[in-house]
Amino acid sequence: MKKLHGLLLFLFTLTVAQAQTATDRKTILGILDRQTTDWNAGNTEAFMNGYWKSDSLTFVGKVGVTYGYDATLSNYKRRYPDRASMGTLKFTIIKLDFPARDVAYVIGKFHLTRPQIGDAEGHFTLLWRKIKGQWVIVSDHSS
């Protein structure tokens, strides 16, 4: 009987953990979809809602490391000053894992369709944390 209770407890725990991961996966993919929609509408500020509003946010790109939400937003606005430079964004998610509780890791590709100035594409790695019940990107490495 103890073995049966142990097995049932294990299966229950496993089911709850998988349900949580499925919910979190759906939430993160939803945020990425919303970011795509916001970007394609030309709304950089709304696109940034997926990021952690903190001075501890890190963004690693071609020019090095940027620290902080405001500096990251500033860089986006400087690099993509108009709709032509922003183009139309498409994300392709390659991998989404949960290496620890309240931590997610995403690897993907981005493609910007920009007929007037030429397309741009690359890969990204996003480190997510669930902070105060909300999933946010705490580190972005895009190249």
TrEMBL record:
Q: Which domain of life is it from?
A: Bacteria
Enumerate the GO terms in the molecular function aspect.
Answer: isomerase activity
What are the alphabetically sorted keywords of the record?
A: Isomerase, Signal
Q: What positions does the domain DUF4440 occupy?
A: 31-137
Per the UniProt entry, the signal peptide is 1-19
Which segments does the entry list as coiled coil?
none
Keyword Phosphoprotein among record annotations: no
Q: Which Pfam families match?
A: DUF4440
Any keyword DNA repair? no
**InterPro entries per the UniProt record, alphabetical:** DUF4440, NTF2-like_dom_sf
Q: What is this protein called?
A: Ketosteroid isomerase-like protein
The organism of origin for this protein:
Larkinella arboricola
Source organism phylogeny: Bacteria, Pseudomonadati, Bacteroidota, Cytophagia, Cytophagales
